[in-house]
Structure formats: structure tokens, C-alpha cells
Amino acid sequence: MPVRLVLADDEPQLRRGLRVLLEADGRVEVVAEAGDGAALLSAVRATAPDVALVDVQMPGTDGLSALRVLLGRPDPPAVAVLTTFDLDDYVATALDVGAQGFLLKDAEPEALVRAVLDLAAGGAVLDPRIAARLLPRLRAGRLLRPNPQLDALSTRERQVLELLSDGLPNAAIATELGLSEATVKSYVSTVLMKLGVENRVQAALAAHQVGRTW
Fold first, then answer.
1. For residue 214, is it within any domain?
2. 166-175 — which CB contacts under 8 Å span 24+ positions?
3. What pTM value is reported for the model?
4. According to the UniProt entry, which residues carry 4-aspartylphosphate (predicted)?
5. Mean pLDDT of residues grouped by 10 in the chain (214 residues)?
């Protein structure tokens, strides 16, 4: 079954282009489009998608306000923020709200498809270009501080975190490390708890901050 996706952006032409790219090989189905936050919330209620890609800057109810509502509901879809290379001030807040990924609108089609599939499988997605620009902003705003708990991770937990920071879902991490998916899920929960972060993207950023060398 293809991954069911809701696409939210206020530019109809961009939505059409992304839809064509994402649906090209049949692994992703765009079940609804939305031009603002209110339409996004309605679309998610109506279609129960696996993933939502959301532009935070939209008219009316903006994407960030919609994310606060959406991610506060039981069993929300996995959500990634769509942005341009010129990062706006909303990205750090979207991270705090609980977005599970950050993607550039000009990413290669295969990268976008892979990101949607990874999100649906429980992974985190973070375009390397976004990480490079986001980290200095977060540090400057004191929203991201060196995490002393990185040194407290075991060797296996560090391996899990490194693969997690590459955006791999639990199943792929399990294959890479020769573990069961349930074991990886337990490791991920422990890593999040030890680092004191709320989600996989925040853990990935903590790893990227130190170059993933401990």
C-alpha cells in the first residue's frame, strides 16, 4: 500500500509539482492538498494520512498554529516541515512543537519520496543543508546547548543515535545493527530519555551539533 500523504502549501503550482514528483513511482499517494492551516486540519481529519508535509508560512491559520493543534491530537500523522533554503524564524519553534523532519522544497524527487517513506516508517528526516544552517541559529538563540548526556550513552546507544541522525527508521537501524526492531525501539526510547529530548529530530540535531563524534 502506498504511503498516504497530505500536502500543505499556499502555492497551488508548487503543490501540483510536488504531487507529480511524489506520486510518480506509486509508493506515495497524495490523498489531500491544503492551502492553509485550517484546510490542513480538515484534510487530516477527513483522510487520516500517514504523513503530512507542511509549509509553516501560510495565510489565515498558518502552518505553525496548525502543527500545534495537529501534534497535540491522539495518533497524529508524522509531520515534516517544508521550507526554502532561507530558513525562517519558525523552524526552531516547529522543532519544539514536535515536527519530525525538515525538508527543502527544492530537494531531489527521490530524496523527497525517501523522506516520506522514512517518516511513515517512524524515521526522522533532516536535509543536511538545513542542519548546517539551523544549528548556528539554534545555538545563537540558546535553543540548542551542548548536551552533556551524549557522553553518557553506551557504545550501542551511540550507534543507534548515529543511524537515527541519518534519518533511518527503526526497521532500517535494526537491519544495520543486526538487532530486532523491538530492541531498536527500546534503544531509541532510552536515547531520547538520556538526552532529555522529545523526539528523533531533536536527538539528531544533538548528534549533528558535535559532528556525531563522541
1. no
2. 167/101, 167/115, 167/118, 167/123, 167/124, 167/125, 167/126, 167/204, 168/118, 168/123, 169/118, 169/121, 169/122, 169/123, 170/121, 170/122, 170/123, 171/121, 171/122, 172/118, 172/121, 172/123
3. 0.72
4. 55
5. 94 93 94 95 96 89 89 90 71 78 85 90 78 62 58 89 83 92 90 83 74 49
